[in-house]
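Why do we care about 3D structure at all? Because function follows from shape, and shape follows, mostly, from sequence. That is the central idea of this module. The next example makes it concrete: a single protein chain, its amino acid sequence, and then its structure expressed as tokens.
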Amino acid sequence: MNQIVAPAGKPRVLFVDDEPRVLTSMRMQFRGQYEMYFAEGGHKALEFLKTATVDVIVSDQRMPGITGIEVLRAARELNPHAMRILLTGYSDLNAIIDSVNEGEIFRFVSKPWDNDVLAGTVANAAAAAKLSQQAAAAPEPATPVPDPDRNAPGVLVMDDDPRMAAKIQVILGDQFKVYGATSMDEAVQCLEQAGIGVVISDTRVQNQPVVSLIGSLKQHHPQLVSVILTERADAGAAIELINQGQIYRLITKPIQDIACRITVNSAHKQHQKLAQNPILHRRYEVEAPAPSAAAPPPALKLLDRIRSLRSWASGRA
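And the structure:
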């Protein structure tokens, strides 16, 4: 383990890669900005994390013996407040799904990376980690947790198939009210009229990608938690949804009842946590959306409606 000694108080960042030249590049790029640690491979990284804490972990995905996903999954248990960034040079949807569901990745960065993009990503992650630590140290909020059987925030299902919402309602039983939408316009209308805590959406609705909608919801209403339904095919869409939408979980079709129930219950608890503790919103901050000047008027109107949505942070409808 190689360490660059830096003054106390600087964010602590662990870089993990099996290629020494990549670690050297990281050392050069971030010199003087952070207290940096370097691990040549995942096993060395985990040994280090058993005795030390860091604010940010930047790990390569494809390494011999142990993958980046496995490293970040274990790191989540060893160092839960650290922000996790995955570097990869290929688009494996299975790995992407695991990165969301098991590692709770802050960002997915493609190799070769853009230095400015990586620098901004690490800086945002370091700031979010500090706020997360402050939130953990603060007393529990006095706001009572809503009774799941009374006024619990609902679940919005966005899918071309109008039967999907009914299917998920059957899976969840009477624990949550499930609303269905077969278009983004219907989805926003539902959000305007009902108290929603969890959004479940396919990656595309009416052949339109949902990333801008999910990203705008997270940007303007960070207490909303998104779960994405996906086929094992579109890795690019999944990466965008991680970085631009901070989706909470990815589940694959056809939906498995038990997995769906566990995922929605976990997402609802996440919604409650974010609603009661706004300082954590930074931990799930999304990438700045692309300029929308060229977007068609219907899309702009939709985004304006999202910005003006009432806040359902308290879980009241």
